[in-house]
Amino acid sequence: MVIFDKAADAEHLDVLIVGAGISGIGAGRYLRTELPGRSFAILEARAASGGTWDLFRYPGIRSDSDLHTFGYEFKPWRDEESIASAPRILAYLRETATENGLDAHIRYHHRVVGASWASERARWTVEVERADTGERLTMTCGWIFSAGGYYRYDEGFTPSFTGRDRFQGAIVHPQHWPEDLDYHGKRVVVIGSGATAVTIVPAMAGDAAHVMMLQRTPTYVLPAPKRDALAIAFRRYLGEQRGYAWTRRKNIAQQKAIWAFSKRYPATARKIIRWVNARQLPAGYPVDEHFHPPYDPWDQRLCVVPDGDLFRSIRDGKASVVTDRIASFTEHGVLLESGRELAADIIVTATGLNVLALGGVPITVDDTPVRLPDTVAYKGMMLSGVPNFAFAIGYTNSSWTLKIGLLCEHFCRLLQHMDTHGYDVCRPEVADPAMPTRPFLDFGAGYIQRAVGQLPRQGDRMPWLTSMDYQSDVKLLRADAVTDPELHFGRVAVTAA
Predict the structure, then answer these.
(1) Signal peptide location in the record (predicted)?
(2) C-beta of residue 27 within 8 angstroms of C-beta of residue 394
(3) pLDDT: which is higher, 392 or 150
(4) Which of 296, 299, 260, 250 has its CA nearest to residue 472?
(5) Cα of 101 vs its chain's centroid, Å
(6) CATH class of the domain comprising 3-154+354-496
(7) How far is CA 275 from the centre of its chain?
């Protein structure tokens, strides 16, 4: 039941979920199902739900994980395409929200601009700006669940390119794709080699005169079937629910096996990936120049291309790959350090994201600002020294949502434990101040490395390790108790005293 704080004339809820993307919708569903008596709202800064899958509009946008694991455990993925396009994923997310009665809980154009915790009242005061009207309003809550992901929605990352202003064509970042961009019959240069670039290149190749993927360093690229034949068979013979469950188990095991094999036998994994790439590319193609990275598999995320569409575009002569460094932009394209100039009518800067932890919202605890690099992540979902605050960050080496589901389950169990024992406050604290720490996301991707100093840390032992293993997290977050010697509970009176 929603109440009003008469002292501050502010609406008060038990939980405020920040973000109506895949994590926020998941959190809302678990709260509504597991704790139906809790009041909550989902605050969304944009005008629509869906997060990433509504924001990005570039050609070919799709998942790079199968939807049987990227989808929710509680809602079967019914589409026959397991590597799915953004519109299909968006429809799935919005259907989930509607089926679980979440539409009325989502408040659009509500951007959180600050949050402060008061121990004497055991609650958060949250400042919100209405993006549509500019109005400021104040809300209070017992818990904040930050579900906005880890990148900045209003601005993608673009390096500073010498001579950018000289280029006479269009320069486009995938995060801000113009609806009216006409690339039919145009020469396109896509700068980048990550998941976005390998998606855009084959999607544009069908209509463009030619598409070049210009990369500084190669990335591991693997073809994967768009349709999972075994998943279709499971669904046909076992039914929708059981078939989905068995497909998830299969794909979770498959993801873990590939990752574990790559980490244990990196040289062999490199050879296998190279062999697969060579079979997909034209005879005599310089595989080692364009598809043989200097790092080991899974030091950075592998890129998946459904049905080998990138390789097919290269075989058909509609796309090509250039590995070189940019010297400058010119009036008519890109000049490389080798002296070669790539002619272009359109340049796409698929150069990555800007990481923005917790949506960039400044938080304070009893009037003291919280510096994220000074905190340590507890179970990958809370911050040391910060009470009643949870966040959702998924896996980097597997499907994002696998971890989100476990975090949401654990969060609901934690709130149930507090209800049972009459607690108002829950705060993780590191018992050993000398515990060694390292970056929260131990990952080599450029967008992570650029922001590593802005993120929380992780420790060298549980519960301060950030697990990237689903089976370990099933035990930690689903099977083990929610209590821990380094997780402290309290009541308002005790806290005030």
Answers:
(1) none
(2) no
(3) 392
(4) 260
(5) 24
(6) alpha beta
(7) 30
- 364: β partners: 116, 369
Banded model confidence at residue 335, pLDDT cuts 50, 70, 90: very high
Where are the domains positioned within the chain? 3-154+354-496, 164-230+260-349
What are the pLDDT digits (tens) for 289-321? 999 999 999 888 889 999 999 999 999 999 999
Q: Kindly indicate whether the domain formed by 164-230+260-349 is annotated with CATH number 3.50.50.60.
A: yes
Q: How far apart are CA 3 and CA 6, in angstroms?
A: 9
Tens of pLDDT along 1-46? 444 444 457 899 999 999 999 999 999 999 999 999 999 999 999 9
With H, G, I as helix, E, B as strand and everything else as coil, classify residue 318: coil
Closest CA to 53 of 108, 10, 94, 83: 94
Give the bridge partners for 425, in sequence order. 490
Tokens of 179: 């609806």
3-154+354-496 and 164-230+260-349 agree in CATH topology: yes
CA-wise closest residue to 427 among 460, 392, 461, 382: 382
Q: Which H or E run contains 319?
A: strand 319-323
Across 148-175, average pLDDT = 88
pTM (2 d.p.): 0.92
In this predicted model, what pLDDT tens digit does every residue of 413-449 receive, in sequence order? 999 999 999 999 999 999 999 999 998 877 656 666 6
Tokens of 230: 């075994």
Reply yes or no: is the peptide bond before residue 373 cis, omega within 30 of 0.
no
